[in-house]
Amino acid sequence: MLYRQVLAQKANHAAAAHFLGLLLHQTGRSAEGLDLLEQSVRLQPKNPDFLNNLGTVMRDLGRVSAAVDFFRGAVAIRPDQLAARDNLGSSLKQLGQFEGAEEIYRGTIGRNPFHVRARIGLAETLQEAGRLDQALAAFREALAIRPKDADLLHGLGVGLMEKGNLGEAAEHFRQALAVDPGMARAWLMLTQVKRQQERDAELAGMEAQHAKAPEGSLARMQLSFGLGKANDDLKDYGRAFDYFAEGNAIRRTGIDYDAARTRAEFETMKAVFDKAFFDKHRPSGIADDTPIFVVGMPRSGTTLVEQIIASHRQVYGAGELGILKTVVGKQFPPGMKGGFPWGIADMPDKAYAEAGQAYLDLLHARYPGFRHVTDKMPGNFLLIGFIHLMLPKAKIIHCARDAAATCLSIYKVHFRGDSHRYGYDLGELADFHNLYTDIMAHWRTVLPDVVHDVRYEDFVADQEGQTRALIAHLGLPWDDAVLSFHETDRPVRTASAAQVRQPMYQGSVDLWKRYGDRLKPLLDRLD
């Protein structure tokens, strides 16, 4: 190989080391490649292309914070390098550093107003930061420059869906598909905002795209989930399940999920946070009750319950926040004495008070001036022991729903990002639900009366009675707006974005029974 010959003659040839390193990374020998790339950057620390490429490799390897440093270096040396600016913006967005990402994207647009990728990045950053109206304005500005851009039309459609403008969202997905009929994610999104009522031309168009998409491809997966939803609407449950099964199988092959490790995490959390632990440790003295935590399995009514609470004039609905996990990770790092979570048992009580204060500082900085703020990260049910010790006055609302209904609802959804990795195989899904049921029973035993349970089925049967009990439990005065929650104007970024815009209906409670024997692998394993 040419690069190796050059390096044999001149070991410190920066370009040869760099391009050989890239080649090795691209052919799956990343560790070897990374050494050479780092060597090239040591030899030429002011080469912006080298810095940008090393950042890209770091990001590929999941080391996003390290990648940011290299992208920053590249931008500092050559401020007009668009590739490095795009990489820096998207990495900051990935880390949740929205202000930094916004600054980079706005700087890029200032330098190059026609650079659409930066405009999409800016709009998506504003969207993820919860500033939906500004995000929609950013998408519209970009569309004024490139009105036939399918990515922009799709992005604006997603934003409109999150705002609750479902008809307008559908129109933008259709416009994106008119530009690019093979845009699988636009087909998937269209099915989320449209209730399929007959086998129309659009459904035939989606089926044709599904037949064309290569087996096992991302497009095939997205179209499978969309066709599953459309056939579910049409009550053609056998065909719907076939599509859902295909979509889930494709998704599962691309996911690294370790069921044994997940079980160990749950068991360890129970072992650490046992009765003796709570006899020994006192909750912090923090009296701030701003946060309202909404926890439970996804698709168990968490988005619905948050929407109801957030319809109250004294509450701001912040959606799925990563703050709790961030704070716990910083205060109780994996490398702590004794390891995580075992070392927690020997931590002084002030550690929980410090973590609680750090959480509140982040929350109040992001959402200043609100009497209450909801934090609806479903998986926080695993961290209830932490929440109670850190913020004992914060309310914890747990959403429960029939196990089979919850699991089927998860199986029918293609989630964003890498969350809910247990959800793409019926057996793994059942096992995870069993672990969740078990740890919730544990919290009730060791922390009686700390968690307030809300049952989805009870809510659907008696919306007003259940809502009144919930508002009373939160210590809030009654507000009629909570009964017409579907009219509340706030962004909803979860898989339930379209559902929470509709009044509650009884039909969803026993829907899973229509799938009959197809759910046997799930039902046989549910406790």
From TrEMBL:
Pfam families linked: Sulfotransfer_3, TPR_16
Gene3D superfamilies hit by this protein: P-loop containing nucleotide triphosphate hydrolases, Tetratricopeptide repeat domain
Chain positions of TPR repeats: 14-47, 48-81, 116-149, 150-183
InterPro entries, A to Z: P-loop_NTPase, TPR-like_helical_dom_sf, TPR_rpt, TPST-like
Record flagged with keyword Transferase: yes
Swiss-Prot/TrEMBL keywords: TPR repeat, Transferase
Name used for this protein in its record: Sulfotransferase
Source organism of this protein record: Mesorhizobium delmotii
